[in-house]
Every structure is written in structure tokens, then in C-alpha cells.
Fold each of these.
Amino acid sequence: MVIVLRSFSKQFFVLKKSRFNLKTLDRKLIKSIFPIAWRSWVGVLMSYGLVQASGIIIAQTGNSAITSSYLFSIKVFEIVKNFANAPFYSKIPFMNQLFIKNSKAQLYNLATQRMNFTMLTQTVAFGIIIIFGDYLLKFIGSNVGLVDNNILIILMLSYTLERYGALHIQLLSLSNNIIWHIANGVTGGLFIVFSYLFLHKLNDPILAFSLSLLLSYLCFYSWYAPYKSYKFYEMNFLKTEYRVTLKSIILVILIMVVSFLTTLK
């Protein structure tokens, strides 16, 4: 959406300087926005759409409590993901200016700082949900609970990989190099394949879909998007990962350890 709006602005002001013609505006807008828009929408459909569709399949098991817990957990994680986007997404207009000015050093520092902030925000929130989620829901008297902690851990790993890749895609998109459709398209295809295999091997559809989500991100999305970003911006891998992911990785490990210890009680 950010890329589409930016393209609209560029086309509008170019045409405004020249002779304003509605037909010309429409043709040029469609021509410039359509290639970007369809790629973005394919990406959205193959990521968010497939995960939501998995809830429909789980509902066919006939256990409304299990379905409700799964859909509720996914919804909570989606809310956290969207909230955690704020530190990075709020700086996209300024990062776009830095990209246009070719201020590579300043863009790199700001982007990696905000990527780190976003990753940490999401990971901390996931940790609170996994460790204290059930207690908080009981405290407010909720009739819907979260899924099993093991499933929440798998979802946390999946969403962490997704956010890591998505941040690199968004950074790359500053150059109007759109790869959402490839990254999410292939990942969505892998999700379908893994889901088909696991549903026939496991008796637990929630575990099957959760593992499928994790493996689909792990096998393609988590490395393809960063690879494209690293290659375009010529970033140093160790330096960048130290700035962006190290703290989040340590925090994820701590959350997993604490979750494991709490299940032993």
C-alpha cells in the first residue's frame, strides 16, 4: 500500500506540472500502479489468506472449542504483528527520502535500528502471551483460551521468521523492487504442500498447520527476502544481523526455556 501511494503521488505531481488531463491521469496511474498492486495483493492473499483458510479446515473437525482457540490465537498474533510494525513503518516516508537522496549510511543506520525495534517489540509481546496469556485470560474471565504452549512456540517462531523477511522486503521496496508476490507466492505454495502432507500424517490439524507454517517460512521466505535485500544494498551480513536480530534471537530462546520450565510445574 505504501508503494502504491508513493507511485500515485509521483504520477499526480508529474501530471500536475504538465497539462492536467483526467484520461491521461487514469491511463498513467493504471499503467504505473497495476504492476505493483497485483504483486502486493497476491502476496497478501498467499500469506494471510491461507492462514485464515486453515481455520475453516480445522472447523471441519467438529470441535468448536479447538477451532475457537486456534482462530483466537492466530488473531492475537496478527494484532501483535501489526502493532509491532509501527516502529519501522512509521519511518518509511523518511527512509524513502533518504533512498532518493542516496544517503546510504543514514538509511542503513535508521533501517537497521527500526528493524531491531520492531523485532524486539514483537518478540516481547509474544513472550508475554506465551508465558502469561492464560493467566490474563482467566483474570478477565474470557470464555476463549489460547492453544497449547507448544503450538504457541511454533507460531512465535513462524511469525518471527515472517517479520524478519517482511522487513527486508519492505526495505527493498523503497527501490520499487517488488518481490511480495514471489516471496509469499512460493511460501504459500509450500504451506499448501506441507499442510497436505502433515494432515495425512498427524491426527492433530492444528499441529499440522502450525508446523506447515513454520516450515514454509523456514524453507523459502526467511532467506529469499533477506538475500534480495542484502544483495541490493550490499550490506555486511554479520554486522547487520548483529544490529537487527541478535537480541531477538536471545529473547526467543529465553521465552522457549521459560515456557518449557513452566510446563514442568
Note: The longest helix spans residues 22-59.
Amino acid sequence: MITQPQATATAAPDPDEERRRIQTARLLAYRDDGPLVHALAPRLGKGLPPVAMLLVALLATIGVAVAGLSPLISVAVMIVLVLPTGARDHLGRLDWLVPPLLRGTEFLIVILIGLAYDAPKWLLFVLLYVVGYHTYDTVYRTRQSIWPPTWVFMAGLGWEVRLLIIAAGAALGILAPVLYVLTGYLLVLFAVESVTSWVRLDKASAQAGADAEQDLEASPEEALEQATGEAEKA
């Protein structure tokens, strides 16, 4: 990960550096890393190349499924190979592939575990829909320079903790109850946070529009009086 460059009083921000910083921030947000990645990434140095590791994890997941092995192996592969990639700056030419590869591999592993351990198919669909909605909401917000708060990604557990919870539920023979709780929790979290954030944004936009309209409707005498009053207060 990289941090925002420190601005100096004399030098203007470098446009190219600012673009690279925003690109990194967006791709890291689209990854949807959770508390485990954020806790370990600073200790992993430069980390591993994300695109290469995700391709290996995806191919390994497909290989595990074709060979008829336990899909829990794929969770271990994801944690070992993909978690260290969170330390990278994601400025490579192909690093835009990281979010779709990561989300696609996560979804594939969830489906394989659910099918292998007889989880309700509709529940798997709802879980994937909820996580997919969260990803879409994040992309839509950041494209308008509206960044979700960091606590949402931590509370949303991230791809790595979600997979570990599902794998633990499958290993303990309680996958269905774990999926019910996890899906319900994420549904409430992402839906409530998203709705309240957009409502708050709409109210702020409406208030700004009303203030601008009021300024336009003010008579020249009222505008002069208001400007004179503000000048006297200053």
C-alpha cells in the first residue's frame, strides 16, 4: 500500500502522482480487503504481485473442483497467495484485473463450498448478491469521489474473513446456520449504511441547491444589505 504524498507549502501537487494515488485507492477499495489483510499487509513488505497470484489461485480453485477435492483447500490457497498482495500499490498495467479476479474467485469458492456441503442454493445466491451489491455501491461511489467510510470495509469482514468463516462452518458441519447469520448480518450492514449515506448526500445536495436558488432570487437591495452586514461583521 502507498500513502498520500505529503504536500509542501511551495510545490503544487503533481497531477500524475495524484492520479496514481487515486487509482491505487480505488483498486484497494474494490478489493474489499478486511481486517485481517489490513492487520498483516504492513508487515509483509512489498507483498506479492496481485494479478499473478490471483490467476494462480483461480486456476488452483478450478483444479481442486475438477479433481473432486475439498473446496476448503481453495480457501487456504487464497489466504496464502492473495492476502500478501494487499501490500502492493496496484499501479501495474494489468492491476485493474485484480478486483474482478478477486471477486470472481471468492464467489466461485463460496459456490463450491455450498454445493459440496449441501447449503441451500437460494441462500448462496442471496449472499453473493449482497456482496455483489456492496461492490457495485463502492464502485459507483468512488467514481463520483464519494468514498465509503473505512469502518464499512472492516465491519464487512472483507473477502478473507468471509471465506474463513464459511470454511470454518463447513468444517464444523454447521455451514447452513453460519450462512444464515453471515448473510443476514451483511445484508443489514450494507443496506442500512448505503441507504443512509445516499439519503444524507441527497439532503446535502438539496440544501446546496436551495441555498443557490435563494441567492439567485434575492433582490439587488437584499444582496447589497447582506454583503454590507457581512463586511461589518468582518
Note: The chain is about 75% helix and 0% strand.
